[in-house]
Design a protein that fits this description.
With about 400 residues, the chain is an alpha/beta fold. The protein has two domains: about 150 residues, Enolase-like, domain 1, CATH 3.30.390.10; about 220 residues, Enolase-like C-terminal domain (TIM Barrel), CATH 3.20.20.120. The chain is globular. Magnesium ion (MG) binds next to loops.
Length: about 400
Amino acid sequence: MKIVAAQLFALRIPFVEAFAHSVRSRTYSDSIVVRLEAEDGTVGYGEGVARPYVTGETVSSCLSFMQAVLWPAVQQIDYARPAGGLTDGINWLDEIVESLPQAWPDGPKNDSVIAWNAAVAGWELALVDCLLKSAGKSLGEVLPPQRPTVTYSGVITASDVTQAVKMAKRFKQLGISHVKVKVTGEGDRERVAAIRDVVGPAVSLRLDGNGAYTVDSAIATCQVLSDLAIDSAEQMLPRDPLAALAAVQAAAPISQMADESLITFADAKALIAANACGWFNLRISKCGGLAQTIRLARLAQTYGIRVQLGCQVGETAILSAAGRHLAAWLPNVEFVEGSYGKLLLSQDISRQPIHFGYGGKAPVLTRPGLGMAVQDDLLATYAHKAVSLEAIAC
Ligand SMILES: [Mg+2]
């Protein structure tokens, strides 16, 4: 199956309310949606979220990479549609990602980019959606669900105690059993203790520092919060160096989770070799799509690293749907984030709502492709930049 046309939509969908962590406060979604059309007329959608402080990609550099590197490569391939059986299905996902170049052909075009993972994820998902729809299959036939529902976490953004308590009360009303708290190094003890008071002892709490701490302050913070039954502390330090992360993992009473330090497969192997964390936060856009995220999850399982499937703040129904399938299938996932949909976005782009319900629960998706229908008119409405790519005659 050849891909004959592609469109890229750089979106700007306003949030219902601002979302803050120690690095950024965000008020709108800036996803890039990839819309591919196959020669049989089938249309598929993918999504990547460029984050300069995660993979180094920006919306602008991502669009350039998609146009100049990914699109010429994709046009050359006659893609196979998925065959039956899980092994075949995983091989099929691997073949798709292997068709996508991971770098500019003549060396780095942008030294600050660690990996073009958001760009690759966007195209991998669009190809997966398109080829599955063309075959009348759901991604759930490639990745058969191990559980009927997925349980999502609530996230409390960086905020003062009053606001944090308000959010904790809202999650309690919604029956959320897993809560992640963004911490900044200021007033952490008071905030997290107040949140624990509101949610009670049965709710799982974990932290995310987004790199705001030093080795000493990360260890001290984990010590001062250790009596509050915290399950993990995500990326307290900046991405590098590895020895610093390992020092915190060795000394802190809360197990550390790698997020911004974990972009590539090489990162994962180095983190394991250095005993630098007990957890991986895998995110489909950050990790370069489904196949590369699955490889990381399997590596984690081999080495006894625990797994969270995270999300990008502001992702739309496309990444949420892909995340739902992966979270339902992955054998070793303990916490899941995402599927916030209209809880965060003023409007999502799918025809059917995708966000979770009471208890953070959401059902597996069964429709063809990724399992949701994108509304093209909303892509046009929310795109601040749209690019149409036509096939180059060979
Ligand atoms: Mg994080």
